[in-house]
Records
---
Amino acid sequence: MTATDHSSETDDMPTVAAGPDYSLPSDAEMQAAFKLIEDNAQRIFTWKYDREREQLVTLYNKAMASQWNSVTELDWSTDVDPEREANHDHATVHLARRVAEMPGSPLKNWGDKEYRQLALELQKAQLSQFMHGEQGAMMVAAKIVETVPWIDAKYYASTQTMDEARHTEVFAKYLHEKLGEAYPMSPFLEDQITVLLEDDRWDIAYLGMQIIIESLALAAFGDMLRTTQEPLLKKLLRYVMADEARHVAFGILSLGEYYQELTDAELKDRQEFMVENTIRSRSRASTPEVWERMGVKFDDVLPLFMEAVKESGRSPINSFQRGFFAKLVPNTRKLGLLDRNGGFLREQWEQAGLMEFEFAEDTASDYEAYDEVAKDRAAAAAG
Ligand SMILES: [Fe+2]
Ligand SMILES: [Fe+2]
């Protein structure tokens, strides 16, 4: 009998001292700890080892040289006071102060202690989404290794898989060692990544991850880098962002080439994917679990927040979304996706007010200027 088999036990049976339990986890434990996803894409083994794509070769060589060691190059002995380091100027904290003054507000008894706690919970929630998103990126990069037909892209995606492993690991470690309990993955992010892992077209993994989610991540990491003073987190974010800039360049280079070969009908699918994943995603919900941990029912507080947002004109995602679209739109222009099919995507984004970013700087060569690892190493060598 195993520890999980209770069918023949009775309550008054004496407990027998058991050895180590090697039984498999129960179904419920499996459900809680794993999510199973079916990948519908075919894997490709290629016999063409010629290095034909010079820019990808350069990017791969750069990736090898700029890999960093998460154990030796970050100072994990740094003392972090989570409450002091949280962003107390977070737009949600400001909105909560307004909400507290509204009639019948569930926050009416809140004082400084609660606002400080809210800032900390928001920080944990955000870093938790980074952690889960990084694991998703690791799996999508591994999928690209298997499904992309070009050897140079397989090599590069392998380095990205390692980068994403390191990112997942450092966010998990930072949460665990410095801040406290992580939050579950937001259903919005989970759906967004699951779709990429299931799709049977290899380029959709790129389009969703390297072009959309990584542009989103760069904007979010940049936001946190600007607001935190904590040296370990700052360095960690700088190093992660340097890797991400390469990943976005990888997407632009690969898809820029591939999309030249596709028919209008095939490209229409990709344009629709972009509309679906950008305009629709603007209306995503915030993290209800933060409110639960603060002892407030999300449904009670949400309508008041909407009101406070309207009144103040201040939304927690406005500046962040600007950062996101300022990267996404020019990157998409580079792929030639805006104007095919009679400018279908341009028209959709124009209506959503996003075309002001068309000629913002794209991320195709950011990685050259943004090599924080090489900069730090050069400074250390110079003494
Ligand atoms: Fe990453
Ligand atoms: Fe990445």
---
Amino acid sequence: MFSKLIQNDFPLTQFTHKEGDLYKIITTYGKTFELRYGYYGECDRKYEPNVIYPDFIKQPLYTDNGEPFVTMVQDACKSYRGEAKRTPDTTCCECKYFQCGEDWIGICTCPKNKKNE
Ligand code: SF4
């Protein structure tokens, strides 16, 4: 009974976006990113697709000046400097080294994280 109620109130097949739909194309700090809807994990497939942001921890990317790209929601690294103490939930957007770009993508200005030539 309860599952039928959920099914009627929240039809699982009528999502606003489909996996692969374009969210937007942004250019920031000299690089262009094509952001699309999708899923971060298989267990998310019963929900509306999310905007998928690049995983710069798995696949680092740098500006021409050697600063690493980061996202606002990326786990803070050991070089984090912020008002609050770093916890497992702390993200780059809370760090003084985070510099905003477009949407949720920015760069890290920490000298320790800069790519050496
Ligand atoms: S902005 Fe840079 S220094 Fe700060 S937590 Fe993110 S990666 Fe680390």
